[in-house]
Amino acid sequence: MKSLKSVFVVGVATLVIGGGAPVAAPPSGDDDHAAVRAVMESFVTAFNAADPKALAGHWTAQGEYIDEEGATIRGREALEEGFTAFFEGAPKAQAEVKSDALRFLSPNLAVDEGRVTVRFEDARGTTRAFYTALLAREEDQWRLASLHEMTDTGPSLEALDWLVGEWKSTDPAGTEIATRYSWNATKTFLTGHFTIEFGDRTLDGVQVIGIDPATGGIRSWTFEAEGGIGEADWEQDDPDHWVFVAEATLADGASLTATNILRRIDENTFTLQSVNRAIDEQELPDMPPVRVSRVTPEP
After folding, report:
1. Which residue among 32, 129, 184, 298 is least enclosed by CB atoms within 10 Å?
2. DSSP class of residue 297?
3. For residue 36, what pLDDT is reported?
4. Distance CA 219, CA 210 (A)
5. What DSSP string describes 196-207?
6. DSSP per residue over 42-107, as a string?
């Protein structure tokens, strides 16, 4: 039997195939794609039901699991033992799988690659991994011949946890912006509700920051009350410096692009600057950095 770490990794990464009994595969073409997808969905169902026997049944008799360090568990019996031990320590673990690419090496061999997320109810929180699965068709059923898990070292929203709270800023033109950031219940998204006051006008909107499952990167979506919608990809240069390239469609249909630079000064202060701005490809002047301060609750 493998170490506790290996058992844990088996539970994290083997979600690629769907649960219950393996699904019979139609002859070829699009039907094969649908059959493999159905197996994946079935495997996830079995995992979320904490059914180790059904999970192990998705492998070929000598099917194997390989963790990120090269340790291998081989054969249905050993896999079932591994899942049994895993669920004893995490009976309510829930999984989601995102397949990025499915291709067929031959009529009876398929490779599926993607990402898996497992959510725990204890201090382990949420874990993520990449996987590569080799599936073989046996007697008209697709089964898992080999599964290789790789640690997901991509960006984490936890790096933006310091944003939680209330913030205010005033730019040189006198525009005041107030924002309140908070986590959703599962800490998969940060949501910011903002209000903009300039002159005698007040606008509001919502910004949602999360991991884009299509890219694995941090992405934000902004919705303004007047109807404008924007998106931005975030890149972290160092722990206190972020750059996010934004594209937006304004309420009147015009297109806005900008590069925004966020510099964290301390727990209660950051600056935000917008450069390389353009509306419908007409360049706009860069904006100077604006100081944003945390609103400290009154005692």
Report:
1. 298
2. P
3. 92
4. 6
5. EEETTEEEEEEE
6. HHHHHHHTT-HHHHHTTEEEEEEEE-TTS-EEESHHHHHHHHHHHHHH-TT-EEEEEEEEEEEEET
110: left (phi over 0), alpha (psi -120 to 50) or beta: beta
Q: Is the pLDDT of residue 299 over 60?
A: no
Beta strands 141-151 and 59-66 are parallel
Please state, in angstroms and rounded to a whole number, the distance separating the CA atoms of residues 17 and 63: 13
Asked if the model's pLDDT at residue 206 lies above 80, the reply is yes
Cα–Cα distance, 67 to 270 (Å, whole number): 40
Integer Cα distance of 6 and 153 in angstroms: 18
Q: Residue 238: pLDDT band by 50, 70, 90 thresholds?
A: confident
Where is pLDDT greater, at 11 or 267? 267
C-alpha 157, offset from chain centre: 9
CB 194, CB 205: distance < 8 Å: yes
Q: pLDDT band for 25, please (50, 70, 90 cuts).
A: very low
Name, in order, each residue with C-beta under 8 angstroms of 291's C-beta and a sequence gap of 6 or more: 169, 269, 271
DSSP state of 16: G
Question: 55-86: per-residue pLDDT in tens?
Answer: 999 999 999 988 778 889 999 999 999 999 99
Q: Cβ-count burial of 103 within 10 angstroms (0-12 exposed, 13-18 middle, 19+ buried)?
A: exposed
Q: Which of 23-37, 89-103, 246-260, 276-290 has the lowest mean pLDDT?
A: 23-37
Contact 117, 101 (CB under 8 A): no
Question: What are residue 277's DSSP bridge partners?
Answer: 284
Q: What pLDDT digit, counting tens, does each position of 150-161 carry?
A: 876 667 888 899
* CA–CA distance, 227 with 260 (Å, rounded to integer): 21
**Residue 119 tokens, joined:** 């959510």
